[in-house]
Amino acid sequence: MIKVRASQIFTHSMEDVVAAKKLLDSGTSFEETVEKYSTCLEKKWW
Questions:
Q1: How far apart (Å, rounded) are the C-alpha atoms in residues 20 and 32?
Q2: Model confidence over 1-46: pLDDT tens digits?
Q3: Of 12, 18, 27, 36, which residue is least crowded by CB atoms under 10 Å?
Q4: Is 38 part of a structural domain of the chain?
């Protein structure tokens, strides 16, 4: 059996995409980056 887990960050602008990527590349946790940049309501379920 194959199990897959996917994570995503939804934003309204390309500027937020670039900023979120920079945070992730610098070592900021995914959860912290989601809280700061994701506009998806599911981010509250972490």
A1: 10
A2: 999 887 889 999 999 999 999 999 999 999 999 999 999 877 665 5
A3: 27
A4: yes
